[in-house]
Amino acid sequence: MKRRGRGIACMWYPIGFTVAANPSAAVVKINEDGTATLLTGTVETGQGSLTILAQIVAEELGIATDDVHVVSADTDTTPMDTGAIASRTTYVTGNAARLAAEKAKGILFEVAAPLLQVKADQLEVCDRKIQVKGFPQRHIDIGDVADRARGVNGQPPIGSATFNPATVALDPETGQGKPFATYVYATQIAEVDVDDETGEVEVLRIVASHDCGTPINPMLVEGQVEGGISMGVGFALEEEILFDASGRQVNSNLTNYIMPTSLDMPEVVVEIVDSYDPTGPFGAKGVGEPTCVSTAAAILNAIHDAVGVRVTSLPATAEKVYAGIKAKRAQEAKQITAG
Amino acid sequence: MEKKPAAVVEREARVETRDVVEMLRAPAAAPLVPLPLEVLVPEARQQTPAVRQRATRPDCRLHGLGQTKYIDDMYLPGMLYAKIKRAGIASARILSVDTKEAEAMPGVVAVITGRDVPVNSFGPSLKDQPVLADERVFHAGDGVAAVAAVTEQIAAEAIEKIKVEYEPIRPVLDPFESLKLETPGLHAPNPNIYGHKVIKKGDVAKGFAESYRIFEGSYRTQMVEHVPLEPHASIATWDPNGRLTIYSTLGRITLGRADISRTLGVPMSRIRIIATIVGGNFGGKNEITTEPVVALLAKKSGRPVKCTFTRPEEFASSTTRHPLVMDYKTGVSREGRILARQIRLVLDGGAYCSWSETTLGKACILSAGPYQIDNLYAEAFVVYTNKTMTGAMRGFGAPQVCFAYESQMDDIATALNIDPLEIRMLNALKEGSLSPTSQKLHSVVVRETLLQAAQRFGWNGNGARS
Q1: What domains can you pick out in chain A, each with its CATH number?
Q2: Which residues of B touch A12 (CB under 8 A)?
Q3: Contact indicator for B339, B321 with CB cutoff of 8 Å
Q4: Cβ of A185 and B449 within 8 Å?
Q5: Residue contacts between A and B (CB atoms, under 8 Å)
Q6: Interchain pair A179, B45: CB under 8 A
Q7: Above 0.95 for ipTM, yes or no?
Q8: With an 8 Å Cβ cutoff, are B403 and A218 in contact?
Q9: Residue B27: pLDDT over 80
């Protein structure tokens, strides 16, 4: 008989390296037509980070995502970056990119200020224009200013910046200190069916509520959460590298190393919680790794809720779950007999 | 006999008439398709303000059209294909490596062993990992020699002809055996326990003494692989000025260039690393693997060299997730508030340190969970074994400890007859809470995620089971 259960798990996760410096640098070049190029040493590994960085630069310059071209991942042409690791790209590289864009924008403001007869600090960007704060009708097209910066003022608008998260070393005796600049939080709730005659677990639904600060691109956040949950489902129920007695792997192929396919995926509901981190670019933190952290815990709690079996070693294969069900029945039978 | 459809007959005929050798040598490349040049840009990419837009990725179009250039799609004129000979034995001393027969094979252009690597050690913290094992094999996935040949098939055949003589050493596979003092040094001169971390806050003995009930549990997790769709791959090519260019699947080119520079003994100014669009990383591509090997083979042969991991190599010769054994002891009040928690973590560090130091630190700091705990003692050890190396993987120890602390949380809730949502709301970190390292936390939204998920799930408050 199939028994339904539900389980909850929450988690916290830091952004960036543990105390160790993990800086990023970035260069933003504004073109003569007001579009821009971002140079970054980070690598697109499928998570969409280059699009996030383009959106951050675009936001700072008041232009659109498509107006920013990103050049990345070449040690000859792009500035130093610690890389696509530790859920750090949006926060650390994003801060560097925003600061670089701010510097390039500062050059445009200096050029635009005399034209609009105000001081540079009275200017702001909005929808591809540079305008006077509080007087949006007094504006110039950002492309006209960028062209003038190069052609009249002789000041091509280029900005570069670096960013490194603020940390404090940990005390070697007590581990006390500030290892990370910021953290994200999440809760996932799983609903499962457990077959009490076979121990087989089917994950029906996972509701995930994640904090990433400001979601720079909600669609990419959802993509990360869905991908993380698929890793979590495999970690919870199926995946395991096995060794023989001499220490050689026995299932190093995708026939015998079982991982979830699209057919094994539950219905996934992604929610992004309202959150803003003043230390991140436009309030953003990050989301990459945290998405796979609480999935297995939620599924294992749902198994416990369904059949009363606490599996304490991953993965919770059908064999392990069934062994737990059998042991529990034997225990109950004994109690009845004793009673 | 059933008549075959015309399309099938035509396809089979095409395959037969092709020169098989040429087919093997033909560069793997995506077929050219005519592209519509009037690109329709989705509205979300054109709108301001840019932040919070559901902007599509420019690389999606390439993926959809099959036009993304992965390493496997790249071909340089005269390029050779490399294969790495794997030890296949978990622990041994290398007595001799005989490459003569492989070198004599037609189509084989260059062969190297661990002794050809100028500086044969690297690693993000401990530099305990060789490019190719020269004296000692520490796990079965270690490389011991490499071949560059005109086809991948010839290279694969050639590594079978390399004879390696080993003196086997009894492998240590259990992290608890490695922990014991009497176990001889697995990785001398490094101690078996190569990393140790303590987080101490408040007074756990006092906290336990004040507790209404104390819960104890032990939890274990397994070794898993990242399984990126695109395996590790790289191409190396030298120019006549002795400058090296490497196309690579690395997710971290800055560190990658430093390690390549170190192992090859070539200054960084002469090395260019270009990372392609990577087909999945998940932490597994943060270190060099094939890069120095292809660079050395390219230098020796005078031709560009490519190496792509096979799926078994992806499992056995790249990093994996640390298996953990986690002991939790938690004291709670009658209402379910956590008063004290003591944690001991043992990480199976595998054959090399890799990113173990980071995993150890993050696992230890995060092991308390997103909860306010005034009295905490967490201790973590990472030890060498002769198993596949463990390293960076999405979450750095967090999915493991989350499984432990959240399993125990539900056991406490069940025993005290409190709803699982309620007990988490009661203990959750809040704005300004002090973390296990006494860091004052900001923008904390644990409760908000709990309530949002519960509401969307339809969690009613009767979750407690007696």
Answers
A1: 2-14+180-335 (3.30.365.10), 24-163 (3.30.365.10)
A2: 366, 369-370, 429, 446
A3: no
A4: yes
A5: 385
A6: no
A7: yes
A8: no
A9: no
Contacts of B446 in chain A (CB under 8 A): 10, 12, 185, 187
CATH number for domain B80-169+229-281+285-316, candidates 3.90.1210.10, 1.10.1040.10, 3.90.1170.50, 3.40.350.10: 3.90.1170.50
pLDDT-derived band at B34 (thresholds 50, 70, 90) equals: low
Minimum CA–CA partner of B53 in chain A: A217
Q: DSSP for B316-336, please give it.
A: HSS-BPPPEEEEEEEEE-TT-
Please state, in angstroms and rounded to a whole number, the distance separating the CA atoms of residues B55 and A221.
12
DSSP 8-state code for residue A90: I
Query: Measured between CB atoms, which of A63, A211, A282 is closest to B445?
Result: A211
Q: What is the mean pLDDT of chain B?
A: 93
Q: Is B90–A241 a contact, with Cβ atoms under 8 angstroms apart? A: no
Strand-by-strand arrangement of the A2-14 sheet: A2-14, A183-195, A201-210, A267-272
Residue spans in chain B of domains classed CATH 3.90.1170.50: 80-169+229-281+285-316
Distance from CA of B226 to the nearest CA of A (A): 9
First to last CA, chain A: 27
Q: Is it true that the peptide bond before B189 is cis, omega within 30 degrees of 0? A: yes
Out of A126, A175, A269, the one facing B456 most closely (by C-beta) is A269
Q: Would you tell me which CATH number, out of the four given (3.30.365.10, 2.60.120.380, 2.40.10.120, 3.40.50.40), belongs to the domain B175-224+319-457?
A: 3.30.365.10
Choosing among A55, A66, A95, which should be mutated to test the B contact, i.e. which has the most B CBs within 10 A? A66
Which two structure tokens, joined as six digits, stand for B209?
A: 């003494």
pLDDT digits (tens, 9 = 90+) for A177-216: 999 999 999 999 999 999 999 999 999 999 999 999 999 9
Q: How far is A86 from chain B (nearest CA, A)?
A: 8
Residue B464 pLDDT: 47
Cα gap B188→B399, rounded to integer Å: 31
Mean pLDDT, consecutive 10-residue stretches, chain A (339 aa), reads: 98 97 98 98 95 98 98 97 96 98 98 98 98 98 98 97 97 96 98 98 98 98 98 98 98 97 96 98 98 98 98 98 97 84
